[in-house]
Amino acid sequence: MAGERTEAPTQKRRDDARKRGQVPRSREVDSAVVILAAFAVMRVGGGALWSGLQSLMIDSFEHLNEKPLTIELTATMGLSLMGRAILLLAPLMIGVLALSLISGMAQTGGPMFSTEAAKPQFKRLNPLQGAKRLVASKQSYMNLLKTLLKFLVFGAAAALTFQAHWSEMTALGVAFSLGESVSLLTSIAFDLVLKVTLALAVFAAFDFLFQRYDVGRQLRMTLQEVKDEARQNEGDPQVKAQLARARRSLLARAMQNVPKADVVIVNPTHFAVALRYDPATSRAPIVLAKGTQLMAQRIREIAEEHRIPIITNPPLCRAIYKAVRIGQEITPDLYEAVAEILAFVYRLRTGARRAAA
């Protein structure tokens, strides 16, 4: 049916959408990457981080008995503890930030900054439209479905983890010491986070594929839109046909004017320019015809048929071809060079007349 968006989006439409910030990107992928980065850093450097935090706490309490607690001492200790805490947490923060940036660029196809996406859209402030988007839109239904699926998936991962460690968890505080219990709970927590992260990664992959499909669906075009864009990019076929007919008509008239030329300047085969100078009708020589390749060859042939002098002067020929249109006078900077050629042509004609007489 007419008006249906059945055509795949063109590259121009995708580029325009990218400028608006409309690209497929899944928040679930960002969440999965952040959790995975935090898990990896904690798994590799968790022991060192825990030892550092222990040392930090011990030092902070030990120094309390050395000097009276004053405002200056509190400020100094606070800044020192903050600096040490930042150094301890720096690997975690840097790892999470780096992987978050990489994840975003991987989804959007590289760095992207859209000023249009940052512009305020006042229509979104309409409470009725906002309520409609939250309650009666496909996006709201999809978000609700994703939330339910996440609860099911994460619940299943937690259930499997607790089932695998149930016997150990029931023996906490009985068969294990306090240190062993803490170590066991830490191991169970890592196992749970790993299963949840892997489940979230699978869920995020499906969500990203859906986001790509959804954005592609939104960018689909009608057949008329594809035709209109083609006209904009390549020009209206009717206008192009009219311009082509006008050019052919102009070239035909130019070829008809070649026999009236006083001289044809060539380069020697690629360019050709036919000039005529009549002091009674113009202030300077006029370009009657010009052309390249086959057109230049045709101008030479007509000039030879009508015994019009053909002068080879590549620099002057190219200069006239580029600077002067058909039917216009040559520019003042070309006067001297053209005058020399015309003077030479006139001398040839005078000598030919005398010889014939």
Report on the architecture of this protein:
There is one protein chain. By secondary structure, this protein is mainly alpha-helical. The chain folds into two domains: 17-111 and 129-230, no CATH class; 243-356, name from scop. It has helices spanning 11-19, 27-62, 71-108, 115-118, 127-135, 138-164, 166-170, 178-219, 223-234, 237-257, 294-305, 314-323, 335-356; strands at residues 263-266, 271-276, 286-292, 310-312. A four-stranded mixed β-sheet has the order 3-2-1-4, with helices on both faces. The longest helix has 42 residues, at 178-219. The N and C termini lie far apart (83 Å). The model has no long low-confidence stretch (mean pLDDT 77).
Write the layout of secondary structure elements.
Blueprint: H1 11-19, H2 27-62, H3 71-108, H4 115-118, H5 127-135, H6 138-164, H7 166-170, H8 178-219, H9 223-234, H10 237-257, E1 263-266, E2 271-276, E3 286-292, H11 294-305, E4 310-312, H12 314-323, H13 335-356
Parallel strand pairs: 1-4
Antiparallel strand pairs: 1-2, 2-3
Helix pairs in contact: 2-3, 2-8, 6-8
Summarize the helix and strand pattern as letters. Answer: HHHHHHHHHHEEEHEHH
Range of helix content: 55-70%
Specify the biggest β-sheet: 4 strands, mixed
* Percentage of residues in strands: 5-15%
Looking at the structure, what is the overall shape? elongated
Quote the average pLDDT.
Answer: 77
Low-confidence stretches: none
Name the strands of the widest sheet in spatial order.
Answer: 3-2-1-4
Please work out how many helical segments DSSP would assign. Answer: 13
Number of domains: 2
Distance between the termini: 83 Å
Number of strand segments: 4
The Rg value, from CA coordinates, equals: 41 Å
Structural class, by secondary structure, is mainly alpha
